[in-house]
Every structure is written in C-alpha cells, then in structure tokens.
Amino acid sequence: MIAPRASDRLAPSPFGEVFARLRGMRATALIYLILYPTPWFYEGFHARDVVGSLAGLAVFLAVYFAHPPLHPKLWQGVAIAAIGYAMSPFHAIWAVFIVYAGSVLAAARPRRHAIAVFIVLLISLVLFCWITHRPWPDIAFGSSFSIASFVTTGLTVDLARQHRQLLEAQEEVRALAASAERERIARDLHDLLGHSLTLIAVKADLAERFGPIDSERAARETREIGEAARLALREVRAAVAGMHGASLRREMDRARDALASTGVTLHVQGDVEAIDPSQDGVLAMTLREAVTNIIRHAEARNCTVTLERDTSGEVVLVVEDDGPTREPIAEGNGLGGMRHRLAAAGGVLNVDRGGSGVRLEARLAAHPGAAA
After folding, report:
1. CATH no. for residue 331?
2. Which of 3-12, 88-97, 218-227, 242-251 shows the lowest mean pLDDT across its residues?
3. Which of 74, 217, 284, 323 has the fewest CB atoms within 10 Å around its CB?
C-alpha cells in the first residue's frame, strides 16, 4: 500500500478556501461602519445615542453573519434595512446599513426575488426619508452606495460560485482519474501475472516430469522458470509505474515459446509489423490473454493467430485453437479486462466455441490515415 504524501494529508479543502475568502471579504466590509458615528464629532452626541447604537450594532452583526456568505437569506437584507431605519434617531449615518442590506441581498437566491426585494428597499428608503423629513443627501448616499454594493457583491458572489463549481468539477475529474488508474493497474497485473504464473506453473510441472529421465531438460525448464519470474517482476513494476508498453511482436515470440512448452504449435498468418503503433499495445495484451487461456484450458495441439485488415479498414486479430469441446465459456476477469481494453480503443471482442476449439476475434476501428 502506498502511503499518502504529507502534502495530501494536510492540504486544505478547496471549498473551505472559497468560503474563507468570502468570510474575510465580508468581515473586511465592516470597515465602512466607521462612517456611522462621524456626525458625532461635529454635532455632538448623547448617552442614548451610544447605547442605542451599540445595541443596534450587536443585532446587526448577529443578522449579518447568520448564514454563510454564499447562501444568505432574503430576510437578512430586510432585517438589516430595518435595523438602519431603527437607528436613524441616534444622529449617525444610519444609511450605511442600507448599503449592507444591498450587499446581502445581492448574494441571496433566487436572484429575481432578491432584485425585487432590493427595488422595494430603495423605494422604502425614499419614502422613509420623505416621511421623516430626512435630508436628501441621506437618500443620495443610501441609494447610490447600496446600488453599487448590490452590483459589485453580486458579481463577486457569482464568480465565487463559479469558482466553487470549477473546484467541484476538478475534484470529480481527479476521483475519476484515480479510479481509472486503479482499474488500469488491476487489468495490467491480471494480464501480466496471469500469463507469467501460468507459464511458471507449466514449466515447473515439466521440470518435475523430466527430472528423473532428462536432467538437462529439467535444468533448462528450471532456468526458464527463474527467467519468467524475473520478467514478471519487471513487468509488474513497469505496470505500477504506468510505463508498461506491450509489443505485439514481442508477445508473438513469447506466445510461441509458451505454447511450445505445452506441446502446442503456433501458426501465424499476417504481418505483425503492419500494425499501427497506437493499436499495437492493446492487440498485444489481447493476444497474451488469449494464449494464457489456451495454455490453461484448451488441451489443444495447434493455435492459429491471424492478423489482417478487412475491407472496412478494421484491424482484425483472430486466435483459434483445436482443443476439444468444453463446457460453456465463463467470462471472468481475463475476458472482461480484454473487452474493456478493446472498448477503450474503439474495438470489440467476440468469442465463439465451435466443435473444434475456441475462436477469439478482436476488431479495432481503422486508425486515421491507415490504408484500407
């Protein structure tokens, strides 16, 4: 098992970063509250102004931070505007709360409801100032800055939501890539070890059989067991590292040797070198799995591998054996992995059991630019 890297374990959640930034922006916006008491410095103030303002600020902060910055509620904007109106008798710039109300409404959803509430809020500001005989600068300040706050906050929140959606999509892509990589390694290990261990088992049986009667043959089989084991180890390491690249020519030579060890003669028809390099690997792994199944189950004497390009331009690999009729073919990990590889490369796999063995046919779509 590969241990996770420290950077992976300690990496913060990207979604947490988005919310943290928005919370920081919201907290930074509180700096505009310093405008609230400025009239006190040139008009003076009473104790009730300070007490009422502190109480109103406490209620405002509780409402302002009541919900996450990406999911505020409409009632928060209405409540903040009401707090501003309630604090208007305390001889301060109470209209600053109308600006905060516009900021909160800009992030609320549904958007059309938020816009409607904001328009009502602007109308209420005008009516409030008219009824209470407030000076027109209060209307100008409250309406202009609240509109600016509504627009800029809306754009900022939209960008933050898009950023979050992008991060979620990236997380999903990473998860899918990790899952695909695990499946690839599993298929590679099955194909590599299945073939190699089958060959090792066959040669071990041969070494045991020839030991009493042909020591030289037994020694050769034993050496080949070691070579097969070392080759399997190298291929497993390459597969795990993602560097495994099977070659159809190499697999054809290995198939000939492996089949010969079990008394099966390989007949090859077609030109291996004519295969496009982009299709070589998947056909090589298909041949490996087919030969492994023949060694394990077929009890055949001959195996024919045909490689051709049909009239539609598709590359066709056919592997046939002349083993006796057996029970219906069970599709396990080997055939399933073979189908998956071919499907990923735009191909299909057909397996038929006739009266004189099994016929496996792999078809790959014509590579762009290939001759028909």
Report:
1. 3.30.565.10
2. 3-12
3. 217
Contact 255, 305 (CB under 8 A): yes
* Residues 164 and 20 reside in one and the same domain: yes
Instruction: State both tokens at 162.
Output: 């898009």
Residue ranges making up the domain that contains 328: 263-372
DSSP 90-102: GSS-TTHHHHHHH
Given a contact cutoff of 8 angstroms between Cβ atoms, the answer to whether 284 and 251 are in contact is yes
pLDDT per residue as tens digits for the range 304-352: 999 998 888 889 999 999 887 666 566 666 777 788 888 888 889 998 8
Residue 210 lies in a domain: no
Q: Is 246 contained in some domain? A: no
Same-domain status, 51 and 150: yes
For residue 187, the number of C-alpha atoms closer than 13 Å in the C-beta half-sphere is: 22
Please provide the DSSP assignment of 156-184 as one string. Answer: HHHHHHHHHHHHHHHHHHHHHHHHHHHHH
Q: What is the domain count for the chain?
A: 2
The amino acid that residue 54 corresponds to is: L
